[in-house]
Amino acid sequence: MSRYFTEDHEWIDVDGDIGTVGISDYAQGQLGDIVFVDVPEEGKELTKGDEAAVVESVKAASDVYAPATGTVLESNDDLADTPGLVNEDPEGDGWFYKITLSDPSELESLMDETAYAAFVAKL
Predict the structure, then answer these.
(1) 3-state secondary structure string, 20-82?
(2) pLDDT 10s digits, 62-97
Protein backbone atom coordinates (compact mmCIF):
# COMPACT_ATOMS: atom_id res chain seq x y z
CA MET A 1 0.00 0.00 0.00
CA SER A 2 1.28 3.46 -0.88
CA ARG A 3 0.18 6.77 0.59
CA TYR A 4 0.15 10.02 -1.34
CA PHE A 5 -0.72 13.59 -0.35
CA THR A 6 -2.08 16.67 -2.10
CA GLU A 7 -1.10 20.30 -1.46
CA ASP A 8 -4.67 20.71 -0.13
CA HIS A 9 -3.81 18.20 2.64
CA GLU A 10 -5.85 15.23 1.45
CA TRP A 11 -4.22 11.82 1.61
CA ILE A 12 -4.94 8.70 -0.42
CA ASP A 13 -3.84 5.18 0.48
CA VAL A 14 -3.65 3.02 -2.62
CA ASP A 15 -4.05 -0.76 -2.63
CA GLY A 16 -4.33 -2.08 -6.17
CA ASP A 17 -6.92 0.08 -7.93
CA ILE A 18 -8.67 1.10 -4.69
CA GLY A 19 -7.85 4.33 -2.88
CA THR A 20 -8.90 5.36 0.63
CA VAL A 21 -9.14 9.13 1.10
CA GLY A 22 -8.99 11.41 4.15
CA ILE A 23 -7.41 14.61 5.39
CA SER A 24 -3.96 14.83 6.93
CA ASP A 25 -3.10 15.24 10.59
CA TYR A 26 -1.82 18.71 9.72
CA ALA A 27 -5.20 19.64 8.20
CA GLN A 28 -7.23 18.46 11.17
CA GLY A 29 -4.90 20.35 13.49
CA GLN A 30 -5.44 23.55 11.53
CA LEU A 31 -9.22 23.06 11.52
CA GLY A 32 -9.57 22.39 15.24
CA ASP A 33 -12.48 20.44 16.69
CA ILE A 34 -14.44 18.95 13.80
CA VAL A 35 -18.21 19.05 14.29
CA PHE A 36 -19.59 17.87 10.91
CA VAL A 37 -18.39 15.84 7.95
CA ASP A 38 -20.32 15.36 4.69
CA VAL A 39 -18.90 12.48 2.66
CA PRO A 40 -19.81 11.55 -0.95
CA GLU A 41 -22.45 8.90 -1.65
CA GLU A 42 -21.50 5.47 -2.92
CA GLY A 43 -21.49 5.36 -6.71
CA LYS A 44 -20.68 9.04 -7.15
CA GLU A 45 -18.26 9.75 -9.98
CA LEU A 46 -15.45 12.10 -9.00
CA THR A 47 -12.85 13.80 -11.16
CA LYS A 48 -9.50 14.73 -9.68
CA GLY A 49 -9.88 18.16 -8.08
CA ASP A 50 -13.67 17.91 -7.63
CA GLU A 51 -15.19 18.96 -4.32
CA ALA A 52 -15.74 15.52 -2.80
CA ALA A 53 -16.61 16.21 0.82
CA VAL A 54 -17.11 19.01 3.32
CA VAL A 55 -15.67 19.24 6.81
CA GLU A 56 -16.81 21.79 9.37
CA SER A 57 -15.02 22.66 12.56
CA VAL A 58 -15.41 25.20 15.32
CA LYS A 59 -13.09 27.46 13.27
CA ALA A 60 -14.19 27.03 9.65
CA ALA A 61 -15.81 24.93 6.93
CA SER A 62 -13.55 23.46 4.29
CA ASP A 63 -14.01 21.52 1.08
CA VAL A 64 -12.16 18.25 0.62
CA TYR A 65 -11.04 17.68 -2.96
CA ALA A 66 -10.75 14.39 -4.80
CA PRO A 67 -7.06 13.50 -5.10
CA ALA A 68 -7.83 11.18 -8.02
CA THR A 69 -10.57 10.37 -10.54
CA GLY A 70 -12.86 7.42 -9.91
CA THR A 71 -16.10 6.05 -8.48
CA VAL A 72 -16.91 6.13 -4.77
CA LEU A 73 -17.12 2.57 -3.46
CA GLU A 74 -17.79 3.23 0.19
CA SER A 75 -18.23 6.20 2.50
CA ASN A 76 -17.26 6.29 6.16
CA ASP A 77 -20.74 6.47 7.69
CA ASP A 78 -19.23 6.58 11.20
CA LEU A 79 -18.30 10.22 10.57
CA ALA A 80 -21.98 11.26 10.54
CA ASP A 81 -22.37 10.32 14.22
CA THR A 82 -18.76 10.79 15.28
CA PRO A 83 -17.08 13.55 13.25
CA GLY A 84 -14.43 13.79 15.98
CA LEU A 85 -12.89 10.61 14.54
CA VAL A 86 -11.16 12.93 12.08
CA ASN A 87 -9.43 14.68 15.01
CA GLU A 88 -8.68 11.45 16.89
CA ASP A 89 -7.31 9.40 13.99
CA PRO A 90 -7.23 11.50 10.78
CA GLU A 91 -5.06 9.09 8.84
CA GLY A 92 -6.78 5.93 10.13
CA ASP A 93 -10.37 5.54 11.42
CA GLY A 94 -11.15 9.10 10.29
CA TRP A 95 -10.99 8.22 6.58
CA PHE A 96 -13.68 9.79 4.37
CA TYR A 97 -14.33 7.48 1.41
CA LYS A 98 -12.95 4.72 -0.78
CA ILE A 99 -12.71 5.11 -4.51
CA THR A 100 -12.03 2.88 -7.50
CA LEU A 101 -9.23 4.64 -9.38
CA SER A 102 -9.96 5.34 -13.05
CA ASP A 103 -6.45 6.55 -13.86
CA PRO A 104 -3.75 5.48 -11.38
CA SER A 105 -1.19 7.55 -13.33
CA GLU A 106 -2.77 10.65 -11.71
CA LEU A 107 -1.04 9.62 -8.48
CA GLU A 108 2.32 10.45 -10.01
CA SER A 109 1.62 14.17 -9.51
CA LEU A 110 1.00 13.75 -5.76
CA MET A 111 3.56 13.86 -2.93
CA ASP A 112 4.84 10.88 -0.99
CA GLU A 113 5.07 11.08 2.82
CA THR A 114 8.61 12.51 2.78
CA ALA A 115 7.76 15.21 0.26
CA TYR A 116 4.57 16.08 2.15
CA ALA A 117 6.46 16.41 5.44
CA ALA A 118 8.87 18.82 3.73
CA PHE A 119 5.91 20.73 2.23
CA VAL A 120 4.19 21.11 5.62
CA ALA A 121 7.46 22.17 7.29
CA LYS A 122 7.52 25.24 5.01
CA LEU A 123 4.00 26.37 5.95
Answers:
(1) EEEECHHHHHHHCCEEEEECCCCCCEECCCCEEEEEEECCCEEEEECCCCEEEEEECCHHHHC
(2) 999 999 999 999 999 999 999 999 999 999 999 999
